[in-house]
Amino acid sequence: MHPSADPPTVDIQSLSRSCNRLLILATLSSGPHHGYQLALELEERSGGAFRFQHGTLYPILHKLESEGLIRGDWDEESGRRRRKSYRLTAAGRQHLEAQEVGWRVFFERFFHVLGGGKP
Amino acid sequence: MHPSADPPTVDIQSLSRSCNRLLILATLSSGPHHGYQLALELEERSGGAFRFQHGTLYPILHKLESEGLIRGDWDEESGRRRRKSYRLTAAGRQHLEAQEVGWRVFFERFFHVLGGGKP
DNA sequence: TCTACTATGTAGAGGCTCGATATATAGAGA
DNA sequence: TCTCTATATATCGAGCCTCTACATAGTAGA
Questions:
Q1: Residue B83 β-bridge partners
Q2: pTM over 0.85
Q3: Is the distance from CB of B54 to CB of A52 less than 8 angstroms?
Q4: CA angle B108–A109–B24, rounded 5-degree value
C-alpha cells in the first residue's frame, strides 16, 4: 500500500476517462447493478445527457474490476441469460470520494481561469 | 452560417479537447498573446495546475486559427526570434461564451448524478 | 564556445471512445 | 413456427487526441 494512493487530482488529459469511471462508481454506490442496467440507470439519472455505448462500458467495467474498485459476480438464474452483477468495494468507495473532491477542485480552478484568473 | 452553431453542449468524449481549447480562448480574451507566453500565463493563472506541453499547444492553436476562432499575426521585431501573436476573433468570443455555459451545465449534471441523481 | 532561455513546429507512440459485429436467451406477434 | 425486439455481455478496428521527443532558430551570458 502506498502512503498516499489516490491523491485527489484530476488532470486534463484524462478527463473523459476519469469522468466515465466516476459515473459508473457513483451509480454503483446506490447498490449492485449489472452492466446493461447500469447504463440504463445512468441515462435516466442524467435525464438522457450521459449515455454509455457498450463498447465503452464493458472495457471500463473490466478495468475497474481488475483494479479492485468494483467486484463482479455472475448471477445464474434459470430462464435468463446469465449476467454479471457489479458492486462497489471499499477501495472503490474511497476512490469515488477522493475523485469527487478532485473534480470539485478541478472545476474551481477551471472557472477561476475562465473568469480571468484574478484572486 | 448554420441556424444554431455552437449549441452549448459539452460531451464526455471530448472533455479534454474542449477544456484545452477553452483555456486557450479564455487566456486570449484578456488580450493578444503569443504561444509561448500563453502557456506561461495559463500556468501562472491556475497556480501551476494547468500546464501545456508545446506538442499539445501549437497544434491546437493552428486548429483554432483554421476554424476562425483566433487570428495569428507574425511579429517581426529585430533582435528577436519572430513570433506569432494570437488574438480572439468575434466568433471565438461567441464560442467561448457558449462553451462556458455548456461546461456549467455539464458540471451541474455531473454532480447531480454523483449526488445520487435525485431531483 | 557552450549553455540556457525564448520560441515555434512536427512525427511517432500510446491511450481511449465509438461504431460495428458477434454471441446468447426469452417473449411477442404474425 | 418463424421472425423481430429487448435483454445481456464481449471484442475489434478506426479515428481522434495528447504526450514525449526531436528539430529548428535567435539571443544573452559565462
A1: B75
A2: yes
A3: no
A4: 100
CB contacts, 8 Å: A16 with chain B: 12-16
In whole angstroms, what is the distance from residue B119 CA to residue B112 CA? 8
Residue whose entry in the numeric block shows the C-alpha cell 480572439? B88
Residues of A in Cβ contact (< 8 Å) with B42 = 113
CB atoms within 10 A of CB A33: 21
- Dump pLDDT digits (tens) for A36-95: 999 999 999 988 889 899 999 999 999 999 999 999 999 877 667 789 999 999 999 999
Give the separation between CA B91 and CA A110, rounded to whole angstroms: 21
Q: Which nucleotides of D are covered by protein (CB under 7 A)?
A: 7-13, 16-22, 25-28
